[in-house]
Amino acid sequence: MNVAILMGGTSTEREISISTGTAVAKACEQLNYEVDSVMLNDSIESVLPRLRNMDIVFNALHGGEGENGDIQRCLDEENIVYTGSGPEASYLCMNKHLSKGVVREAEFDTPDWYLINPSDDIPKNLIFPLVVKPNDQGSTVGLSIVHNEDELIPAIDRASVHSDKILLETFIPGREITVAIVGKDVFPIVEIVPSHELYDYECKYTTGMSRYECPAKIPEALTNQIQNDALRMYEALNCSGYGRVDFRLDDNGRYWFLEMNTLPGMTDTSLVPKAYQSGGGTFSELINKIITEALNG
Ligand SMILES: Nc1ncnc2c1ncn2[C@@H]1O[C@H](COP(=O)(O)OP(=O)(O)O)[C@@H](O)[C@H]1O
Ligand SMILES: [Mg+2]
Question: Of all atoms in ligand 1, which is nearest to the CA of residue 171?
Fold first, then answer.
């Protein structure tokens, strides 16, 4: 089988995408697939001729048009098979405001939030601490915890470098957990214990900057409930192939949806491989599972 690994792209997450793509390419070689690593440096049209000859495209892009549905729509039009969610779900999940709305509509918990433009008046009666983040960025880029009113404007300025829509979200104290899904299989919950206040860019991508616990030490009944609900959120958001849901878990055992990642990282330090490997599987088997999902799903 011929597999194209699509990586790079022009978003702020380009370097992470190259790490994901390199790891995936290595796994595909171990699986004895014919691999073409396709580095995306400008528009998707420039690489379409290379993709048309392949049996499948593994989408190793992160952020921007690789994750927001634009490239998925283009590949659909070309009848090219690719891994992960389609254009509508990708668009929805890239937009935190929209995806939080769907999740709340389905009666799950997600922290209260305002969506503002950087030039808007600040909403009245805000309760601190707040998390300020761009509506459509990943990797904790442009995100701040705001402890008081004085910190608010600088935080909005930092977020507005990356997006013209900003979320002001209630800060949820507690633990950081994430749930990976491939097809209909929900993996063991991963707990992340970052060495910073936030699971920020450095903690995400530097080995040793976070501690991971998988399976997370959470009572069994609650674990099952979180896993079931993660799958229901994935379905409510119309995701397919694979995905990863980020939650905060508070001291009362309430879990709060933060976001759905339709193209979660697949590097050595990434969470989906950790979750899968905790059950005894290998990285190559995980990649094969994602490819099989795309071909048969
Ligand atoms: N409402 C919140 N309460 C507490 N921590 C948060 C909240 N929102 C984000 N964070 C922290 O910031 C990290 C990144 O936020 P997230 O919404 O997952 O965006 P992204 O990963 O796309 O940058 C989270 O993993 C968590 O550590
Ligand atoms: Mg996240």
Answer: 3
